[in-house]
Amino acid sequence: MIKGSIVAVVTPMYPDGGVDFDSLAALVDWHIAEGTDAIVAVGTTGESATLDTDEHIEVVRRVVKHAKGRIPIIAGTGANSTTEALELTRLAKEVGADAALMVTPYYNKPPQEGLYRHFKAVAEAVDLPIILYNVPGRTGVDMLPATVKRLSEIRNIIGIKEAKGELSRIQELLDLGLPRDFALYTGDDATARESMLMGFHGDISVTANVAPRIMHEMCVAALKGDKALAEKLDARVAELHSVLFLEPNPIPVKWALNQMGRLPAGIRLPLVPMSAQPQDQVRNALRVAGALS
After folding, report:
1. Would residue 161 show up in a list of annotated catalytic residues for this protein?
2. pLDDT of residue 293
3. Is the pLDDT of residue 156 over 90?
4. What is the pTM of this model?
5. Is 116 an active-site residue?
6. Contacts 24+ apart (CB under 8 A), 146-153
7. What is the pLDDT of residues 217-247, one digit of tens each?
8. Catalytic residue among 93, 106, 116, 161
9. Domains in the chain, start-ordered, CATH in brackets?
């Protein structure tokens, strides 16, 4: 089981929207050096919704190739079409991803039975470990704990990223009696520390894009049950957890990484570069975290 700080890495782009593979490779090296425990390539933070299939899989392939087994690579393969999700998962396996992260289908709002059958179909068709991803604030559908319980009985569905952002949901999942090897990850940085102190195994993080060392160390402390140290470390990045969502993700985090000199100022429509109003807040939070001088 992968534990700790798992970065939902951005996809670097040039101002014209083309993928910057050199910056992507540099990000992989930086995360490994800073202690990040695993990388999600082309998750939703990686702008999966605006990359075509060839670009999507090429990014995953490049990340896997450059990592050279130094760190687990999880491919984002979610889609609101089961056929598309299945194909992305199959291709991710072909290029060597260690696992797939599959967001719940967005916009079409399937019922719980539809969610169950969607993930079941992909898991049975592709022999790759699959991590479920629930983020109702972005998809418009909430995968309920009872459905997670059903899906946990499928051999290669190995975990869930729960990003509802409510500690009550964290406790519901902990109380389900899931298999001991079923991984529980939070996808909400603001409640990540508490989630891991309660019993979750890690954080699939946006904040780790800009503060990977602190996020790794905070996760280590929380997983050990060292509440005081986890709180101390989390305090350094607590403002980042908030300001990186002042505009829709990944607008602020890509702006922050550009300010840090780690990638060009590229993002794809319908997303646009961050507006001027929140820039000082993001810059100040980066300085508090030691990510910007």
Report:
1. yes
2. 86
3. yes
4. 0.96
5. no
6. 146/112, 147/112, 147/115, 147/116, 148/173, 148/176, 148/178, 149/176, 149/177, 149/178, 150/116, 151/116, 151/119, 151/120, 151/123, 152/176, 152/178, 152/179, 152/182
7. 999 999 999 999 999 999 999 999 999 999 9
8. 161
9. 4-226 (3.20.20.70)
